[in-house]
Amino acid sequence: MITLNTQRITEVLRKQIANFFEAEPVLLELTQDIYNGHDAADERMLHFSNPHYWVKVMDCAFESYVRPVILCEVIYFLKKEYMDAEVEVNVDIDLSPDAQERISITASISFNDQVELERSELNNLIDLALQLKDKAWFEELSCRYNAISA
User: Fold this and answer.
1) What is the pTM assigned to this prediction?
2) Radius of gyration (Cα) for the chain, nearest Å?
3) Taking Cα atoms as reference points, which of 92, 104, 94 lies closest to residue 36?
C-alpha cells in the first residue's frame, strides 16, 4: 500500500491535470468552501472521503480561468496515475479558530496483487521455492496451499 500526503497528491494532480486539459495549471491549491462562523459548533474537524465525491477540495487556476477540483476528480486523476489500484482519499478540514493547518488531504493506494492459483500451480511454485531455498516464499506458498486444501 502507498500513502500519499498533500504535497504528493498535488504533484500527481498537477501532472494529470496538465495532460487532461492540455494546459499547465498556474496554481493548484487546497481550498475550503465551508462557512467558518463564530459558533461553538464550528470548533470541530470535518472529514470527507470517497463517498463524498461532490466536495470541492481544490482550486485549479489556468492562465485565463479558475475551476474547482472536486473529490471525484482527485480520485479519477489518482487512478489514472496508479492504474488498477484502489484509491481511498481522505480530506480533513479543521474548523477551529486556532488551526495550524486548515485543510489536509491524504490518499491510500492499494493494489490487489493476490493471484488466484490452483493446487497444481501452487505445487509447482512450492517445488521452485524449495529448489531456490527461499524459506519465506516456501512458507507463504505452503500457507496458501493449506488454505485451499482445507
Assistant:
1) 0.71
2) 22
3) 94
